[in-house]
Amino acid sequence: MRLSSWGPSNTIAKTPETHPLTWRLRDDGQPVWLAEYESKNGYAGLRKALGELAPADIVGLVKDSGLKGRGGAGFPTGVKWGLMPPSDGVTPRYLLCNADEMEPNTWKDRLLMEQMPHLLIEGMIISARALAATTGYIFLRGEYVDAARNLNRALDEARAAGLLGSNILGSGFDFELYVHTGAGRYICGEETALINSLEGRRANPRSKPPFPAAVGVWGKPTCVNNVETLSNVPAIVANGIQWYHGLARPGSEDHGTKMMGFSGKVKNPGVWELPFGVTARELFEDYAGGMRDGYTLKAWQPGGAGTGFLLPEHLEAQMYAGGIGKVGTRMGTGLAMAVDNSISMVSLLRNMEEFFARESCGWCTPCRDGLPWSVKILRALERGEGQSGDVETLLGLVGFLGPGKTFCAHAPGAVEPLGSAIKYFRDEFDAGVAVQPAQAATA
């Protein structure tokens, strides 16, 4: 996917008022370093947070803004912050940035980290101030080598400028921030698995309660937020709640903007910052340019491999959690994938379920055994060697591995696209069932 912040044409203006995440991006795609970032009002939110606001004020501001997590779950950020116990001034407290971004078809955080590293850093410092956190870690997907290099350079710039470390900007607030590269496991998108990995343990999800807010990294209070989530904080602090609420399109129940995109055989694959509430059709046609010549849209996923498939008629849905929910799935990461008419749904689902089965931590039986079972059946159907009842077995697995049936949300996310694919393209799965001898004789 080409990383891009452009809209339907390069004449669309990106301003601080309309594109708080991307207006500073350079046309040449090079990183925005400290001097340029500060010349574009960078760290203004931090200066306001340190000089004018108490930590509780920042928490209240983020809560009232309606900012929700941008990693896929969509939990209200301010509410999550409010779960942290009051600081005693002695116990270490941690802020973790989930920058693992292992969701297939999703590269939004990569754009922000590679080209706008100081935005994330500023957001983390403000958030740490609100949470009274003294140490932060950016848990980064190991394959993101350019992001790691750019983040570390930006951290060095921030330390040299007095924006990190002891007594930040003379405020008396101390905070240190580090980049930690992981080994590349999808399960680290689950916050307690991420914490285990950061501690040097196997990346298995933890039993909850206790929740990380009370017992997180090394048993201390911890908050975990996504890259895009934290990158929203500086503009909210600098510009206020009413401005943030005014960014979304009418009808959207979510506030602000969202990094959205389209991959697949579209004419203009990319990532764009758009207001919540734009229609999927606008994203698909006006920004991604529709399908390439010779291809037609067969199906699409709204937000990564863990979201259900939708049909072309569902493109009228608005891109926000409730809007996508109305047509039967989740918005997820907001990075959509177009499936063209040349793709076999059985082969596509076999590929996806292989990924999910491989990335299972193996902690609970339904996920550990159920996902490989689905792969075995899908491989047989793909070869045309399926048995009678195989499709029903797959539908049974969709139910057995659904929400509330497993230790974490990995398996429910893995089977959601499988269930929707069978719902809309049952004939393709049935076609993989081999003709049995009795059927052949009857025929």
UniProtKB/TrEMBL annotation:
SMART domains: NADH_4Fe-4S. Residues 346-391 form the NADH-ubiquinone oxidoreductase 51kDa subunit iron-sulphur binding domain. Pfam families: Complex1_51K, NADH_4Fe-4S. Keywords: 4Fe-4S, Flavoprotein, FMN, Iron, Iron-sulfur, Metal-binding, NAD, Quinone, Translocase. Its EC number is 7.1.1.-. One of its GO terms (molecular function) is NADH dehydrogenase (ubiquinone) activity. Coiled coil: none annotated. InterPro entries: NADH-UbQ_OxRdtase_51kDa_CS, NADH-UbQ_OxRdtase_suF, Nuo51_FMN-bd, Nuo51_FMN-bd_sf, Nuop51_4Fe4S-bd, Nuop51_4Fe4S-bd_sf. PANTHER family: NADH-QUINONE OXIDOREDUCTASE SUBUNIT F. NDH-1 shuttles electrons from NADH, via FMN and iron-sulfur (Fe-S) centers, to quinones in the respiratory chain. Composed of 13 different subunits. Subunits NuoCD, E, F, and G constitute the peripheral sector of the complex. This is NADH-quinone oxidoreductase subunit F.
